[in-house]
Amino acid sequence: MDEPRAGRSSPFDEIFQQFRDPIYSYIYHLMGSAEDAEDFTQDTFVKAYVALPNTPDDLKLKPWLYRIATNVCLEIGRAHV
Description:
This protein has 81 residues and is mostly helical. The chain has helices at 11-31, 34-51, 61-79.
């Protein structure tokens, strides 16, 4: 991704701002812990940031982010058992 210019946000910053709270709420609902929701939300957006350059142009962003969040909960949640 291109580096953001001073005073301008990157496309990923805009995605994060738009979806951070809904993803956090979704994860909190699944996991029942504010601490886990914070950690898993961060993990979700790190994974999304890394994968975004390799996604198709017609990507449906919202379902893609929720799928990543679900997978993070499943992967990390299993490690807690």
